[in-house]
Design brief:
Blueprint lengths: L1 H15 L4 H7 L1 H7 L10 E4 L4 E3 L13 E4 L2 H6 L3 E2 L10 H18 L6 H8 L3 H12 L3 H18 L4 H8 L4 H11 L4 H5 L6 E9 L2 E7 L4 E7 L2 H11 L4 E4 L2 H15 L15 H11 L7 E2 H7 L6 H9 L12 E2 L12 H13 L1
Parallel strand pairs: 2-4, 5-8, 9-10
Antiparallel strand pairs: 1-2, 1-3, 5-6, 6-7
């Protein structure tokens, strides 16, 4: 009876395992990801190594195992049920490295936001148990900003919120973390677009000139402050464009443009009809430090060319900030002048456009034929 049992066991093993384990591994497309140590495959599967008794994530930096010793598993739980333990080097049971980095950056942002005073890079790195250089690199990679620039943007946001709820200027600036009023007033034009007192009053006392008209893409609104063009909007009807402008400047005085401003409007309409001409007018751009960087990068894309959100993030030195780049494009207040219509999906398709995908296609077609 004993020889018969061994024969049955052999039949069972042959039915559950391939005749040539090495060939089966080499044919499996997941093996190519393991050989390439492809971090993009992390989380999709793990692989175990029979000779060591461990299982790893595809990007594990350890020396590659022999193909005949490798098995693939859909999850860590499946690998552990098969009797394998997690690799101590790549720690496959933990979140993937990009996710851990993103979590560290998110934690750094929370620490910066919670700090009443500027938090030195060395102290921030110490709290996160990272080296200052490593933190600086990760932070910029994920946000597009240095920790210092992020802190400045967070401080400016706290200031805007305090002023908007009516706090006195002195109280608001210290609450936001500014060391003194002189530093704030030096940066007020960039941070607020006006003096702190005027911002606190909802823009009261400031004047915004505007004009509504028609162009080949429908209704158009052009508005300008004392600093330059602050809004170019396109739409089907003029009324929604005017309401949006009123929402942006709730207590500013909106006045119809004079003859001089009408010349600006004519040049903006000319830009819409022929985007490749460019616009040589002063612009009043109000946004975060990162938005300003994105908008400047958009202006550097030549007419007739396009760029993906991923490529734009890479140009900014922030390859993981694709969503933030897309958000900055969506927040662009100056249609055509800041050419966010030149940003497309990675496959070349036209993604959403604040003023309508049909208008985006028309602008690109005009530039291509110029």
């Amino acid at each position: 009876m004993q020889p018969l049992r061994r024969k049955e066991d052999a039949v069972t093993r042959s039915a559950s395992q391939p005749a040539d384990p090495a060939a089966a591994t080499l044919r499996d497309p997941r093996w190519a990801a393991v050989l390439a140590r492809d971090a993009q495959a992390d989380g999709r599967f793990v692989y175990s190594v029979r000779s060591t008794g461990v299982y790893c994530r595809p990007s594990c930096p350890s020396r590659h195992a022999r193909p005949e010793n490798v098995r693939f598993h859909a999850s860590c739980a499946e690998a552990e049920q098969a009797g394998f333990r997690p690799c101590l080097r790549c720690r496959p049971q933990e979140a993937a490295l990009p996710e851990r980095h993103a979590a560290l950056v998110a934690r750094a942002c929370r620490l910066i936001a919670a700090s009443e005073q500027a938090l030195p890079l060395a102290e921030l790195a110490r709290q996160l148990d990272l080296s200052p250089h490593h933190l600086h690199r990760l932070f910029k990679q994920h946000t597009g900003l240095t920790p210092r620039a992020w802190a400045q943007a967070a401080r400016a946001q706290r200031l805007r919120e305090a002023l908007a709820r009516g706090a006195p200027v002195t109280e608001a600036l210290y609450e936001a973390g500014y060391g003194g009023s002189s530093r704030l007033y030096e940066q007020a034009d960039q941070v607020l677009g006006m003096t702190p007192g005027r911002y606190r009053a909802g823009g009261a006392g400031s004047e915004v000139r505007f004009a509504l008209g028609q162009c080949s893409l429908g209704a158009i609104l052009v508005a300008g402050s004392e600093r330059g063009i602050c809004a170019i909007a396109l739409g089907d009807e003029p009324e929604p464009l005017l309401r949006e402008l009123q929402d942006r400047f709730p207590r500013a005085t909106l006045v119809g443009g004079d003859a001089g401003f009408e010349q600006w409007v004519a040049r903006v309409v000319g830009l819409v009809e022929a985007p490749a001409l460019g616009l040589d007018l002063p612009l009043d751009l109000r946004g975060t430090a990162f938005q300003q960087r994105v908008w400047q990068a958009l202006r550097e894309i030549p007419p007739g060319q396009t760029c993906s959100y991923t490529e734009l993030a890479q140009r900014l030195g922030a390859p993981r900030a694709v969503r933030a780049v897309a958000g900055a494009c969506a927040a662009n207040p100056l249609a055509v002048a800041i050419p966010c219509h030149r940003v497309v999906r990675s496959d070349g398709g036209l993604s959403g456009y604040r003023w309508g995908v049909a208008r985006k296609a028309a602008l690109l077609a005009r530039e291509a034929s110029a």
